[in-house]
Amino acid sequence: MRTRLEALPHRHVLTLPAQPSAVRTARETAEQTLTGWGISLRHPAVDPALLILSELVTNSVRHAVVLSPEVTVIYAAGEDCPAFAVHDRHPYQPSLFVPVTDAGSGGLATVMELTLGLSGTAVVRSDADGQGKSIWITLPL
Description:
Blueprint: E1 10-17, H1 21-36, H2 46-63, E2 70-78, E3 81-88, H3 106-117, E4 121-126, E5 133-138
Antiparallel strand pairs: 1-2, 2-3, 3-5, 4-5
């Protein structure tokens, strides 16, 4: 699946303090946003998508807070394709394709297992200044 993220007509941006409560707020906002865009919360891709989002926000809160006091979640969708990104201002760019057996790879390994299991895509995009990144997930419906 290859989707031009810029072509997705629906967008919502949420910036939160990089605190544990950001995970719940990001997930609840995703549910409200998807519903508002006409995507049923009962669709089989929605629960895994919410788990992926939760893992990515958790990673930013745990690992990037020293350099990034905020985390931004970008929600986007087209007719048959929800996408979201989690952005922080920490320059470290993780490898998305880490074997599950590697120590410390649990969160991203789960993200990738779910994303690929749904025939989705994942990409890390660096900020223009190299001091932050976004991890974009795109899933088919």
